[in-house]
Design goal:
The protein has 407 residues and is mainly α. 80% of the residues lie in helices and 0% in strands. It has 2 domains: 2-204, no CATH class; 315-407, Serine Threonine Protein Phosphatase 5, Tetratricopeptide repeat (Alpha Horseshoe), CATH 1.25.40.10. The chain is built from 18 helices and no strands.
Length: 407
């Protein structure tokens, strides 16, 4: 019953329901729903062809007069069968195409477009939740179009419309699942459709030898995906249960961090504010609240939170409090105050590209161009010498430093 509720919730509260699907959705239910809806889409062209076929014994003149329109109906039905989104050779192939081609292609593209880690790490961590939400959204976006099949004169138009609606609905879901930006999520969705170009090769999966070696090769990865999905959902349930304790601020902080990764800013703020109410001296909650206030342009409010963290622990988060403190002054236009805070941070963390870029921007605003160029160069060098597994985290700051040097 809950799974039907999640499916229907996509029509009324889509963003909130997408987050719930990541935490509670069943991949099996989603796959079965796709099978059912895609089977109807598969059967509809056959009905169109049957309607276009003249009855036996009909008058020759009547048949001749309808020849052109019948041909058009058949061509439209065939186009509908081929181009309906993710409808390859049948309902089962639709599900396989999503799991084997579309979702991996989308995830691979996202690793290049957003700092979410390498493909192997992202696959084990995010594939289960991503595939679940893909199933649910495909079903929710295609289901209304079933009622338009009898009325829509052009099946090709119906297929195109369902594809556009599906891609538009999937983009924010990818943003939630992977924590990527909206442009990166949209690019990843488009790349997923390009992955479907390999659909003609799906028939090779019928080979028992290929299936054996494929399973031997990827079974470990899929076990990790299943374990990761269950572990993350169990952690979420545990944290939700822990919030019942009115004195437990840590559970709210951890839930807030989950919302932050999904870019659910209001939900994250609510959790951190609750944690701060429970324990006003907790530096974690105040630090994250300061970052959210700075993101929303409320710089005086952010300053109060950062000062509270510094008073509690001036070394908080490996001195990153000084970087955030300086960045807040930089955004507020207090460039000399920003310079002082950022120089303190850089003295302690000399190879942090983000802090070096902020400091370079503060120096540029103060007219100290030569010093600023040196800092931007150091930021690029720091990004280039990062360990391989961390370079995706700093690629944004490398680009920002190079752009500043070009100016």
């Amino acid at each position: 019953m809950k799974q039907f509720e999640l499916l229907l919730g996509l029509y009324f509260r889509p963003l909130r329901t997408m987050a719930r699907i990541l935490d509670e959705g069943s991949p099996l239910f989603g796959a079965l729903a796709v099978l059912l809806v895609s089977a109807v889409f598969q059967f509809a062209p056959l009905l169109a062809i049957a309607r276009a076929t003249p009855a036996p014994g009909a008058a020759t003149a009547s048949v001749d007069s309808r020849a052109t329109s019948d041909d058009d109906d058949r061509e439209g039905a065939q186009a509908f069968s081929v181009l309906t989104p993710m409808l390859m050779s049948g309902p089962i192939a639709t599900v396989i195409g999503m799991a084997v081609l579309f979702a991996p292609s989308l995830l691979l593209a996202a690793t290049f477009l957003a700092p979410i880690g390498g493909f192997g790490v992202a696959f084990r961590r995010d594939f289960g939740g991503l595939l679940t939400v893909i199933f649910f959204i495909w079903t929710a976006t295609h289901l209304p179009f079933l009622f338009l099949i009898p009325a829509m004169p052009n099946p090709l138009l119906l297929a195109a419309a369902s594809t556009v609606v599906y891609a538009a609905a999937l983009t924010p879901a990818v943003r939630l699942a992977l924590g990527s930006s909206l442009p990166a999520s949209a690019g990843a969705v488009v790349a997923g459709f390009f992955g479907l170009l390999l659909t003609p090769f799906l028939h090779f999966l019928a080979s028992p030898f290929l299936l054996f070696y494929a399973w031997a090769f990827v079974s470990g990865s899929f076990s990790d995906v299943e374990w990761s999905l269950k572990a993350r959902r169990n952690l979420r349930r545990y944290l939700e249960a822990a919030t019942i304790n009115p004195r437990d601020a840590e559970a709210h902080i951890q839930l807030g961090l989950i919302h932050l990764r999904r870019r659910q800013w209001p939900e994250a703020r609510m959790r951190f504010e609750k944690a701060s109410e429970i324990d006003p001296t907790d530096p974690d909650a105040r630090f994250q609240l300061g970052r959210l206030e700075r993101r929303d342009g409320r710089y005086p409010a952010a300053e109060k939170h950062f000062l509270a963290v510094i008073a509690k622990d001036p070394k908080f988060s490996h001195h990153e409090i000084w970087r955030e403190f300086g960045a807040n002054y930089l955004n507020a236009g207090l460039f000399d105050d920003a310079r002082q805070a950022l120089e303190r941070f850089v003295a302690l963390r000399a190879h942090d590209p983000e802090g070096l870029v902020y400091l370079g921007e503060a120096l540029t605003a103060l007219g100290r161009t030569d010093e600023a160029q040196a800092r931007f160069g150091e930021a690029i060098e720091a990004a280039d010498t990062m360990p391989h597994y961390r370079r995706h985290e700093v690629v944004e700051w490398r680009k920002r430093a190079k752009k500043a040097l070009r100016r």
